[in-house]
Design goal:
- By secondary structure, this protein is an all-beta fold.
- The protein has 1 helix and 11 strands, in the order E-E-E-E-E-E-E-E-E-E-H-E.
- The chain has an 11-stranded mixed β-sheet with strand order 1-2-3-4-5-6-7-8-9-10-11.
- Strand 1 (3-5) and strand 2 (8-10) form a beta hairpin.
- The radius of gyration is 19 Å and the shape is elongated.
- The termini are far apart.
C-alpha cells in the first residue's frame, strides 16, 4: 500500500508493474511519487490529476512519457523523469509553462526535446547522462533558467544564444568533449559557477580570466 498524507501520495519502491487504479480516483492529490518501480508505461489518465504540483516518475522503465502530463496545468514544482529509457517527449509538454524544475537525466535523449525549450518557467533543468551532441539556439527562450546541468553528454560547445540567458547562475558541463565555448558567456551577469571538470579537450580561452574577475568560479 502507498502512503497518503493529505494531498500527498507516495508509491515509492513498491515493485509496481502498473499504476494502481485507485490512484486515478484521487483527484485532489498535489504530489504523486511513483519512483523506483518497474513501470513501462503510465496511462494518459494522469492528466486528470489537475491539482498535481509535483510528479515523480524517476527510476522506472518508461520508453514513452504520457501525453496527459501536458494537461497538468497546476504542475509548477517538480517533474522527475530521470533514469528511464526515454528518447523523446510529447509536444504536449510544451504547455507546462509554469513548471520550475525538470529532471530528464539518465535517459536516451540524442537531442533536447523541442517541448523543453517551451517550458519558459523553468528555473532548473537537468539533462545529465544522455547523448546530446548539441543544444539548440532556442534554449535561450528559457529566460528564467538559473541552473543548466548537462554533465556527461557529447557536447563540443554551447550555442552563442546562451549569452542571452541572463538569469543563469550555474552551468555544469562536466564530462563533455568540449572544444570551445562562446565568448557570449561574458554577457551573463549572474553566472557564479562554470563546471568543466573531467573535460580534457578544451584549451581555456583567455577571456576566462574576465569571468573569474567578476566572481564566477570556473572548475577545470
Amino acid at each position: 500500500m502507498g502512503r497518503t498524507s493529505g494531498p500527498h501520495l507516495s508509491l515509492w519502491k513498491q515493485a509496481l508493474d502498473a499504476v494502481p487504479e485507485h490512484v486515478w480516483e484521487q483527484a485532489d492529490i498535489e504530489t504523486l511519487v511513483l519512483a523506483d518501480n518497474n513501470l513501462q508505461a503510465v496511462p494518459d489518465r494522469v492528466g486528470k490529476l489537475q491539482k498535481l504540483r509535483m510528479l515523480d516518475l524517476g527510476h522506472n522503465r518508461l520508453r514513452e512519457a504520457p501525453e496527459g502530463i501536458g494537461k497538468l496545468r497546476a504542475l509548477t514544482d517538480f517533474l522527475y523523469l530521470h533514469d528511464n529509457e526515454l528518447s523523446s517527449l510529447p509536444s504536449s509538454f510544451g504547455r507546462l509553462t509554469r513548471l520550475r524544475y525538470l529532471n530528464i537525466s539518465e535517459n536516451a535523449f540524442e537531442s533536447l526535446p523541442e517541448a523543453v525549450v517551451q517550458m519558459v518557467g523553468l528555473i532548473e533543468l537537468r539533462v545529465t547522462d544522455n547523448q546530446l551532441s548539441s543544444l539548440p539556439p532556442s534554449i535561450s527562450g528559457l529566460v528564467r533558467l538559473r541552473e543548466l546541468h548537462v554533465r556527461n553528454n557529447r557536447l563540443s560547445t554551447l550555442p552563442d544564444a546562451v549569452g542571452s540567458m541572463v538569469e543563469l547562475r550555474q552551468i555544469d558541463l562536466r564530462g563533455n568533449p568540449i572544444t570551445s565555448l562562446p565568448i557570449s558567456l561574458l554577457q551573463l551577469p549572474r553566472l557564479e559557477k562554470l563546471d568543466l571538470r573531467w573535460v580534457v579537450t578544451l584549451n581555456p580561452p583567455i577571456w576566462f580570466a574576465e569571468l573569474e574577475a567578476r566572481g564566477c568560479a570556473i572548475y577545470l
